[in-house]
Amino acid sequence: MSHIFLIGFMGAGKSTVGPHLSRLLGRPFVDLDDIIAAQQQRSIAQIFEDDGEDAFRGLETAALETLAEAAPSIVACGGGIVVSQASRARMRELGTVVYLRTTVAETFARISDRTSRPLLAGEDAAETAAALLGERSELYERTADLDIDTVGRKPADIARDIADRLVAECLIESRNLTVHVSVPGAEYDVMLGRGLLERVGELIAEVSSARRIALITDHTVGDLYGLTVEAKLVTAGFDVHPLSVAPGEGSKTWEVAGEVLEAVAELGLDRTDLIVALGGGVIGDLAGFIAATYLRGIDFVQLPTTLLAQVDSSVGGKTGVDLRAGKNLAGAFKQPVRVIADTMTLRTLTEDDWASGLAEIAKSAAIDGEAFMSWMEEHAEALRKRDADLAIEAISRSIAFKAQVVSADEREAGLRECLNYGHTFGHALEKVAGFGVYPHGIAVAEGMRFAIRLAVDAGSASRDLVMRQDQLLDRLGLTAIREPRNPAELLGAMKSDKKARAGAVRFVLISEPGVWECSAVEEDLVGDHLAAWSASKRGN
Ligand SMILES: NC(=O)c1ccc[n+]([C@@H]2O[C@H](COP(=O)([O-])OP(=O)(O)OC[C@H]3O[C@@H](n4cnc5c(N)ncnc54)[C@H](O)[C@@H]3O)[C@@H](O)[C@H]2O)c1
């Protein structure tokens, strides 16, 4: 069994980095202290108080033993585990050991409630902690295969660094590009790789015991990949019924959803059967909505074939259709049981649809933070030219980011709002121009340009950040659109957007990469910016 053990001093981030790494590598996360507390039916503090440290170290070694037969996992260990020679040896036998290096100052900064850590509570806490860290440092270093500096870094960035170095130093065979999503009531894997459609039958059979499958696609994707997918599903023993709609946003309607629902009902699918969505975001949203409503909900699998769908729409469970009044106004949360993203399908995308996906990646980068944003800046031209390895890297970063956000806030009660960056204006533009005139991502990129200018006046973004984002979008091939639109119509569309509250228009405003707020912006100010935006297009 090859586990990944996270060791290090208090506050090094073992239990916060662990879940991020778990999603990146598609392995479960366990906390060794939780195993011990469950086995002993006592808290760790109680065990220390009742039985003393030596006894606890013995329990740690015994808990490691229970992992010997477990599936490869990410294991957060207690800060003192390295004191025991037996535990050090067992960790090295059972997997790879990663040392999260920190300092006493960082530990104090990260642990706000020090009363829960007796060691850090006393007056001479800093000296005690420094002495203890001094004693243990050498043991951490000697035990670890990888030494990772965590000072001043975010858990998600540290996890990414660990994943990269595990691959680079051949400590895990190759990057396992399965990202795990966990929301209340649903757990699923997002699988990413080249040629996955070749294995689609077995990969779906792993998560579904359906007899019949309604394979929903659009005519373009159906012509390109429908037969392959159908053949693989039939070989795996499924009874497959392809249903195809016209390509594009025009199919994401109540009427088309009704027609497809009627077709599914005619096929007689029952609750144990499965919907499979093969296509871009339109097909994913439409088929997901059908899976959410047919028989009050049956399982569905996403096979995303656009860059946008692979990095964004296939993950997170938002499904729905557009109404005449606006985008995505009818829908349901419905998580897929698996997402299988074959990057080979991206080779047939048009330039516009490639750029559209890059826009959603740029959005994720701006919201995620400096590390992802700088990485995009470093590789913008290569991504525009579809460098295959960098594209996989960008997709996996975006999926991990989205998985992290939706795992924390499935229903958009707070954090998930960040994913709407660029969407208030973007959705209004799509509606006013007519759905389907601009690829969704192109409208979002224009929305990001609008939102960041607004953030200079309504928030605290700097002019430098405006330039920086403009340059990144330009270099990705997302040049600003040229046509003006009527400001009053755009404002009206924003006010009927589902993110508006009591008629007040809300925007995600960033002040620097990774720092954002979602707030209502005064209508007059929005109006001024809309007028300026439209005038700048007239000058083109
Ligand atoms: N549910 C969510 O969380 C979420 C998030 C972002 C966007 N969305 C939605 O996603 C939709 C946009 O998705 P999209 O841009 O993928 O649109 P899309 O599904 O319309 O695909 C764009 C075009 O690409 C074609 N296509 C798809 N895969 C192809 C391939 N491999 N090769 C060649 N052509 C291919 C399609 O036929 C279509 O013409 C919007 O409706 C948007 O609202 C949803």
Keywords:
540 residues; alpha/beta; 7-stranded mixed sheet; 5-stranded parallel sheet; 22 helices; 16 strands; globular; binds nicotinamide-adenine-dinucleotide
Structure commentary:
The chain has 540 residues and is of the alpha/beta class. The protein has helices spanning 14-25, 32-40, 44-51, 53-66, 85-94, 104-110, 118-121, 125-143, 155-168, 200-205, 219-235, 254-267, 281-293, 307-313, 351-368, 370-384, 388-408, 423-433, 440-458, 463-475, 487-495, 523-538, and strands at 3-7, 29-31, 74-76, 95-101, 146-149, 178-183, 186-193, 212-218, 239-245, 274-279, 299-304, 318-323, 326-333, 338-342, 506-512, 515-520. The chain has a seven-stranded mixed β-sheet, sandwiched between helices. Strands 2-3-1-4-5 form a five-stranded parallel β-sheet, sandwiched between helices. The protein has a two-stranded antiparallel sheet with strand order 12-13. Helix 11 (219-235) links the parallel strand 8 and strand 9. The N and C termini lie far apart (62 Å). The mean pLDDT is 92. Nicotinamide-adenine-dinucleotide binds next to helix 11, helix 13, helix 14, strand 13 and helix 15.
